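User:
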Amino acid sequence: IVGETMIDFVKKMHESIAGIIKDQLKQVASAREQNTPVTNRLLDAEKLVAATGEILLYDTQSGETFINLGSNSQLAVGDKLIVFKQGVALKDPQSGEILGYTDEKITELIISEIRGPKLCLAVNNKRDVILGKGLKIKIQKPVR
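Assistant: Predicted structure:
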């Protein structure tokens, strides 16, 4: 059981770090296209908060969404959360082993309340996008 928990933890950390690197590379490419200098802030992943969680409860009428992330994840009212689902399998070309999956963005949520160390309430402003329990959440933002 401990081994499985550790494997899940490492997978989640890998997903978080991979997301940070992907976003950093996009920012660097964008800065280069616009001929603007690439600052240390763009490259300093150590100064970013990256967390993943999931939807605990979603109210289809109000768009209110309870998420298992809170003050422990350095979240604040107004922060944007990305809702995503598992995308395409990424396979090793030699072995055929599944190495991971892409993330498919569904929508963004805005945090309206921090309710505890591991709980926040966020709002889905796009009512045409129906969410559900168990969908994954990501946040990446500069450390305050």
